[in-house]
Amino acid sequence: xxxxxxxxxxxxxxxxxxxxxxxxxxxxxxxxxxxxxxxxxxxxxxxxxxxxxxxxxxxxxxxxxxxxxxxxxxxxxxxxxxxxxxxxxxxxxxxxxxxxxxxxxxxxxxxxxxxxxxxxxxxxxxxxxxxxxxxxxxxxxxxxxxxxxxxxxxxxxxxxxxxxxxxxxxxxxxxxxxxxxxxxxxxxxxxxxxxxxxxxxxxxxxxxxxxxxxxxxxxxxxxxxxxxxxxxxxxxxxxxxxxxxxxxxxxxxxxxxxxxxxxxxxxxxxxxxxxxxxxxxxxxxxxxxxxxxxxxxxxxxxxxxxxxxxxxxxxxxxxxxxxxxxxxxxxxxxxxxxxxxxxxxxxxxxxxxxxxxxxxxxxxxxxxxxxxxxxxxxxxxxxxxxxxxxxxxxxxxxxxxxxxxxxxxxxxxxxxxxxx
Length: 420
Ligand code: ASP
Ligand code: MG
Hints:
This protein has helices at residues 14-25, 42-54, 58-79, 84-103, 110-118, 120-135, 162-173, 205-216, 249-257, 268-272, 326-338, 361-371, 393-400, and strands at residues 2-6, 32-36, 140-142, 182-186, 189-191, 197-199, 220-225, 246-248, 278-282, 291-294, 304-318, 345-348, 352-358, 375-389, 405-410, 414-419. By secondary structure, it is an alpha/beta fold. It has 2 domains: 2-225, Carbamate kinase (3-Layer(aba) Sandwich); 304-419, VC0802-like (2-Layer Sandwich), CATH 3.30.2130.
């Protein structure tokens, strides 16, 4: 058994959906659980619908939702013949699910509505995807993952109930492979025991696939992307980025932690726990080998470079020149935690602390107000945080040339520099 995950970019046009069907043709003798994201930027569009609805603009929300509907129905119309009726019926039932809600007035909190609305993206994409495979002669079973993935009700960042979910996968998903080689389902979403839809956090489909891989004891998980594999830097920022043939789990966890947008950070653990290799492969050229991520030690990696823009330096200085000991530091961490602010770098001295945080003006203002009870607080904005793993002096020089370094932290493996 294998698990495949196809992201939004792999299904964002008629040609691309057909291309995926072509790729899958060469896997028809295997058993593959296929997790699919919402088409293209649908999740962003649905976020707009949720925002409009929650701010009381139901007409605007309906109007925005009509655009999402049209895009999906148009796509279905072009792609589907034999399966068109069945697929359109299913699409309609999901459209109705959302429209019913949009006609109401919001009475619960935003995150709840967000999940009820945004979760539809994956249900729509997989409906079209599954029908397209059928059209291409690829027999498959479509399932609503909300019947399988049970989560808590922490909307927008729900946690999986592993016991219940495992039981569902074993009882309801595994038997489907007796009928056909492919089972198609949604990433990113789940459901509470009250049958409310939930989401697992943006870009969560990688993680959904890993949950399936873990429970199914899959031989591997493949994430299909529009790039050759994992690179040592973002090629859009650094055209000299190089392809990495092999990585180990720990390296990828570190990369995700420092902000590399490779794979959803939660993805690795379920795979690592069962030693399931993760392959990042290119859907534009399936003959390329891709990057393999596994438990083996990988030596001699090139420098891995991660840029984070829009950073804020928060300087905290004790007002009475008392030392920054556990007490003020503890209180500060409590404030950060309450405001859901995660520093990307922290440094403390005798009477001061420095943090580097993603710019979130609203939360930072709250932090500044609260922290000023204990510290003199200063903020400096528009900074860039550079992280280099497996650095060399040469690469540090090259990437920091002409910049002012405001904070710097170094271990034998990793250097971080906050710069302007
Ligand atoms: N569609 C969701 C998102 O865009 C989940 C995913 O693509 O992984 O965040
Ligand atoms: Mg995506």
